[in-house]
Write a structure and sequence with these properties.
Layout (H helix, E strand, L loop, with lengths): L2 E7 L4 H12 L8 E7 L12 H5 L4 E5 L5 H10 L5 E5 L3 E3 L3 H11 L3 E9 L27 E3 L14 E4 H13 L18 H6 L2 H4 L2 E12 L8 H25 L5 E2 L6 H16 L3 H21 L2 E2 L3
Parallel strand pairs: 1-2, 1-4, 2-3, 6-9, 10-11
Antiparallel strand pairs: 4-8, 5-9, 6-8, 7-9
Helix pairs in contact: 8-10, 9-10
């Protein structure tokens, strides 16, 4: 078995989950190239084995398993513990893969031996039209298109080479490094989302950034593409504001976890050290963003404010002091 594919879900939209499963069954690779693990993270009612029928009919091994501990991190760890292939692909229950997604990914793996983690383009399907004010927020909503060229890199900071959690390919050795970090620092469990109300994030970043210590790279490959069937409620302002607050809290926690792993105290970045100066910059950024949309301005302000407050809680030193 070359690849394990993990799909974690809780109370999915049945029609959209069916699209995700059918897209896996259509993959243009030989039967037995991959197996699929569907982790039901406490759906009501529980999912049934019938959803795996398209996969089994196409000759791909498939298993439905239950993880009762709530949260994406617990569900993914459950799948990791049940699998052993050298690579794992994580997809979400609203992801419809291009028919060559698996073939392109395996070809990319064979083309270079320094990959630790990679992903591709996350596109909106034709059936989803976001309101105009939400278009600048699409990267935070799980839409990514970084252009036509492969991008590679490795750093403990965000870069276009870092893959989102949807459609994320990861080497087994990097998965094990991630699992070891979770065992060493339980705060990492707080980065994974928990149902529809828990909008924590950055679990995928924590996974991807394990490549640095392993001497591996992350990559963006535009030949990999999937359609992300975002639910309509994700374009409501209330949801977006909760999402941006979740990102702010999670980014600060991610920095604290990585600093502890390095054996360092987390420093508050210089732009955040002087409260009055930060607030002036925040007001200026809000006024600039308002020219585009007041909703965009409000969302970015919530994100920056939350990040600042969360970093101040977690940081021990300021600007290298």
């Amino acid at each position: 078995m070359d690849l394990d594919i993990c799909l974690c879900t809780r109370d999915p939209r049945p029609g959209i989950l069916s699209l995700a499963i059918q897209s896996l069954a259509r993959q243009g690779v030989a039967p037995g190239t991959f197996q699929v693990i569907v982790v039901d993270n406490g759906s009501t009612p529980p999912l049934g084995e019938e959803l795996l029928a398209p996969l089994r009919a196409a000759g791909h091994p498939a298993r439905l398993t239950l993880e009762e501990r709530p949260g994406l991190t617990a569900a993914r760890l459950h799948a990791i513990s049940l699998t052993s292939a050298p690579w794992m692909l994580f997809i979400d229950d609203d992801n419809e893969l291009d028919d060559d997604f698996v073939a392109v990914g395996l070809e990319f793996i064979r083309s270079r031996d320094d990959l630790g983690c990679f992903g591709g383009r996350l596109l909106l399907p034709d059936s989803v039209t976001p309101p105009r004010w939400a278009e600048p927020l699409l990267p935070w909503l799980g839409i990514k298109n970084a252009g036509p060229e492969v991008i590679t890199g490795a750093a403990e900071r965000w870069g276009p080479w870092e893959p989102p959690g949807a459609g994320l390919w990861i080497r087994r050795t990097q998965l094990e490094a991630y699992r070891a970090l979770l065992a060493a620092d339980a705060r990492a469990f707080e980065l994974g989302r928990r149902g529809r109300d828990g909008l924590a994030s950055c679990e995928d970043s924590l996974m991807a950034r394990q490549s640095v210590a392993l001497g591996l790279i992350n990559a963006y490959n535009p030949r990999l593409a999937l359609r992300h069937h975002l639910a309509p409620e994700r374009f409501r302002l209330g949801y977006v504001l909760r999402l941006m607050r979740g990102y702010g809290e999670s980014q600060a926690l991610l920095e604290a976890i990585l600093a502890r792993k390095r054996g360092e105290a987390l420093e508050l970045p210089e732009p955040y050290c002087n409260t009055a100066r930060f607030l002036r910059r925040l007001a200026s950024a809000f006024n600039q963003a308002r020219k585009r949309s007041w909703r965009w301005a409000l969302a970015t302000t919530v994100h920056q404010w939350t990040t600042w407050r969360a970093l101040k809680r977690n940081a021990r030193t300021c600007g290298g002091e």
